[in-house]
What we know:
The chain is mainly α. Helices cover 38% and strands 7% of the residues. It contains seven helices and three strands; from the N terminus they run ααβααβαααβ. A three-stranded antiparallel sheet has the order 2-1-3. The longest helix is centred in the last third of the chain and has 13 residues, at 120-132. It starts with 13 loop residues before the first helix and ends with a strand.
Amino acid sequence: MASPLGCSMNSVDYSRHMTERVLPEPDRYAVCPLDGNILSFYDGVFEAAYVLLNPFIRPVSISADRYVDGVDLSPSDIVRSCEAVSWNDVQEFAGLLSWAEIDVALKTSIGAMLREYSRRDLSEKLMTSLKSHQIFPL
């Protein structure tokens, strides 16, 4: 059978492609492991793997109101006027059990968690603590 373009269509079984989803192997340079095992996922691909955490800051030489009011600050303004706050300190201030709870609380607060995994209780606990200590997530 010939298509209107004169190509033969007999050699391809299109019905399989309509019902079965075929995905390429994930590109190790563009994806993360679904099971969370970062080191074993990238074993043999990279010499080292680093995990970057969202920073927390506390204004020290400018008013915290500049952050609350949504005033735009340049990165150099933030570096000059704020101090870094560690995840360990945030965990302690908020009374959370782990960095994983901080992560879930942050993702819940911005709506990045599926409803069944979100933890509004952790989010409220974290945000209340950050506000009382004048700490801001970036």
